[in-house]
Amino acid sequence: MKGIAIRVMRQMRGDKRTLALILFAPILLFTLIYFLLGDSSYVPTIAVDERAIPAQVISALEDQGANVIDLGTLTYDNEEQLLIDDKSIDMVIVRSGTAIDTYILEGTVKSAQAVKALQAAIQSVSQQMFTMESHVVYNEGASSFESMGFVYLSFLTFFFVFVISGMTLVRERTGGTLERLLMTPVKRWQVMCGYTMGYGFFAAIQTVLVVVYVLYVLALPCAGSVGLIFLVMLVNAMVAVLFGAMASIVAASEMQLAQMIPVLVVPQVFFCGLIPLETIPFGLGNIAYITPVYYAAEAIRRVMVEGADFSGVWLHTLALAVFGFVLLTVNTLALKKFRTL
Amino acid sequence: MEITVDNVSKGFSGKPVLNGISFETNGGSILCLLGPSGAGKTTLIRLILGAIPADGGNIEIAGRKVPDLGVLQDIGYMPQNDALYEDLSGEDNLKFYGSLFRMDKKRKKERIGDVLKLLDLMEDRKKLVRYYSGGMKKRLSLATALLNEPKLLLLDEPTVGIDPVLKRTVWDRFAAMKHKGITLIISTHVMDEVTECDTAALLYGGKLIRYGAVKKLIASTDTGRIEELFFKAAEGTVQ
After folding, report:
1. What is the mean pLDDT of residues A253-265?
2. Tens of pLDDT along A228-238?
3. Which CATH fold topology does B1-74+151-239 show?
4. CB contact under 8 A, A339 and B50
5. Which of these, A120, A198, A258, B181, has the minimum number of CB atoms within 10 Å of its CB?
């Protein structure tokens, strides 16, 4: 068992590309997500019929940071055509009788910025009649990156470890080395534990790098203990190794393993907090309970967002560990495919 | 090491690959599993190793029924492809396999030195296997099979893809091992190689068409060439 783990480590040391993929690719992705989902400095441009819209609303829009232009200075046939012809305009606001009509090109993030500015402007105007203040229990004022950080932490690290362990083990099969090592007195469970230890070592380094980078460089807020995040992520990474091993035993080639990713791994991202389970129709949200990433994401969410201590996440961590144990047993049995004993 | 193969059959997906194979071989000899591609040679080797279960019949190695993990401690196996870790050095490949045979550090070091010297790989032991030539990989693969000082060596097409000079060297090494009391079971589809062996099991279409001492088998032909027995099998005239 120790021999297999040491061999995996030596092999990985000689395979710089794989090493870089497991250690640095998640960091690169986290940096991208940070910029893509962090606070946007985009200034929406809103064309307003200044003769018909109350000056208070226009002034409130400007206060919200929107770039307001007077519709009267533009030449256009109708509002829709104006949006089609001039892509720099995100929203058109006109008066139609007693109503205010707004036009946007489509429901993109860019248009959403204009909608957000208008809502804020209307709210600030209405405050002259009554005051309204919103309160959020957890993560008040958080960006999308900050609110969804736990999803990316659990899913991305799982994904990379799965790919590396699955691909390497398939290569071991197709290269004949798995069969050869099984023609020695080594026990099947020792093979699986050896692999898990070997890849788990790199997964642990990945965990430390990612958590330190995300919490201390990208400053993702964490209300609870960082040590608990490490613990959950580490168990999650071990499960990913075993999940990859299971897929590699079923797959006959690297191509087949790649084909399994959209079926076995990608759907897990939808059930780990990206979409609230309660809002998923037809009870499909219950699928989450058979996906390991859900338990990791939920435990990380509780620690990071709610500041939960061990008593708040032990059940989820245990569920992950049970997944690991079941996968270890299944994989050990599945190795019978290559050696009867 | 004595090996008894008794009425062994094996099929895959309902298609028979080996049918009623029986033979016995004694220690300190070379048995050749001879036959064209698809005759069932590799399947028979995998059955002897216990990698796959037989559908019928029994295999015993030194009186122990296969599959048996303990038996694998005394077996050296060289698969058809080299089955080496290309991103490890030759020495690291040997260290890894040594650990699987539960060798202590001292013995592992001694054995690695012995097999590297025997197969002329000492100078290149630190080089990554991906930079080895085809012949070097073959020798390293054989070195790996010899690492645990096996009493039984199972070699699946060990001379495929190597040059005539290396082939001669390899057969000389096999002869030397035989004289040390090691039993060798070697599969090949190269008819001429049968003369290097003591006994031969001729496999054709999953059946054992002839088994016996190589000299006697050759003597039983009209042309003095072992191919004749396969031609007769193909025509359905073999006795």
Report:
1. 92
2. 999 999 999 99
3. Rossmann fold (3.40.50)
4. yes
5. B181
